[in-house]
Each structure stands twice: as C-alpha cells, then as structure tokens.
Amino acid sequence: MGLYAGIDLGSTTTEFVVLNGDGEIVCAQKELTGGDIQKASETVLNNALKETAARLTDFTYIVSTGYGRKFVPFSHKTVTEITCYAKGVHYLNPDVRTVIDIGGQDSKVISLDADGTVNKFLMNDKCAAGTGRFLEMISNIFNTDIDELGELSLASTHQVKISNICAVFAESEIISLFSRGIKKEDIIASALRSICERVCGMLKRLDVRDKVLFTGGVANNIGILKMFSECLNTDVIRPANVFTVGALGAAIFARGLGRDLGSDLEKDSERKLEKGLEK
Questions:
Q1: Are strands 236-237 and 212-215 parallel, antiparallel or unpaired?
Q2: CATH 3.90.950.20 is right for the domain spanning 3-84+243-278
Q3: Mean per-residue pLDDT for 200-210?
Q4: Fold classification of 97-236 (topology level)
Q5: CB of 155 within 8 A of CB of 185?
Q6: pTM
Q7: Fewer Cβ atoms within 10 Å of its own Cβ: the N or the C terminal residue of the chain?
C-alpha cells in the first residue's frame, strides 16, 4: 500500500499520523498516554490500522518522536521532537517562522528558516509553571473542566499578580487569593497571564518573526491564544488539530526515509541486473 507514519509519544497524549505515497494525510489518531507508554503506542497503531484497513506490513517506514520515542517497538527510527515540529509546521503553513508549543510537561519556542529548518529553539522542561500541568492544577482547584479555563478568563475584569514562578507555591497563592474573595475568573486570567509571560520571556531570546503558530494541547485555550497575540503584537494562529503537529512531522520524515530506502533498493536491483547482463 505504501504508507508512512509518525508517532509522537508525549507525557499526556500520544498521536499517530499516516501519510500516503503522495504525502497526503489519510489518518490521525490521538490517545491519552497514561502510565504505559508501550500500550499507548500500540493503541494508536491499532486504531490507525482499523481506520485505514491496512496491515503493519503496509507501512514502508515509521518514525517516532516525543519523550517516549525510544520505547515504541514498531518504530524504524527516532527523531527529536523539535525537528519534527519544524517539519510538521512547515507542511501546514510554509510562511510560519516562529512556533510556540506548550504540552503537558514542557514548553518550546522555535525559530524556523524559510525552508522549514530549525534556526534556534529554547525549551523549558524543568518547571511545570509554564506547561499544561499548571492548567490541570488550576482546573482542579476550581473544579472546572480544563477546556473551560480559556472562556472563563475572557470574563475577567481585574487581574492580580501571581508572584510565585514555581507551580507548587503558585498553587498555594491561588488558593489564598480565592479565599480572600478574588473572583475565579480574575484568578484564572492572572494564572494564564503568568504562563504567557514565561513563554514570552523565552521568545524575547529568539528572533521572533511573523507568522507565529501556537501548537500543543494548551493552544486550545482561547484565553492564552489571545494573550500571546497581545504580548507579541501580532496575530497568533493555530492549526486545525493542535495535537498532531509533531506526529505529522515524524510521518514526513518517515516518507522521506522510506522513499530514500526504496530508491536505494531500486539502484541495488539495477546493479545486480547489470552484473547479470555482463555475465
């Protein structure tokens, strides 16, 4: 069948993207990673096989990326997530030059060249305060669905300063503010602002250029999307599927490697044929 696939095994979600020989997306799957990395990878693979009516042998090449990339049993090669995000973003929008990615346990900012290669990047994977884990903590404090935080933040009329940059101490500070009668909407907006400021601090160390694309699970938060646009004084766009950019980039790598492999096999076959004819 000639299919190529990329799998992005993140701390929170695992994504699987399938491309056909023409480089078209034919399937995209997403599952929660949970505590079993191998099980998560096998789940998205099996779901993709069902959706495409394919067999594992129909895949010419599979590339894995993300923090769990080395634990995917059916992967042919691993590629770093920064490089895969660059490939995926360039596929979706070749005009993008700056990428913001905020996932469950880290946040990344990437500067791209015109051909989609990585110019510079910075990553924060040491502190939860600028990641999706921080949003989970906030949603738990207010017993609110994490997807509703963005809409609630838009109702804020007065933001307060959250001074702690550590997620653990910030949690205590948020609870204290709420107990003092500060409105939930104002606290949520202030917490989102603190995430935005952390990432914008990283962006200032890069050469930020238009267009700016925001990806990762946190990109679904309309409040942070709006804050980034205000902070950078430019429109910040997001893809239709904010989760699958890394897996898409891995699939693009797989297609390139698979085509190279096929070309090498074809050349080898031609050489053997020529030797046979010489005899």
A1: parallel
A2: no
A3: 86
A4: Nucleotidyltransferase; domain 5 (3.30.420)
A5: yes
A6: 0.86
A7: C
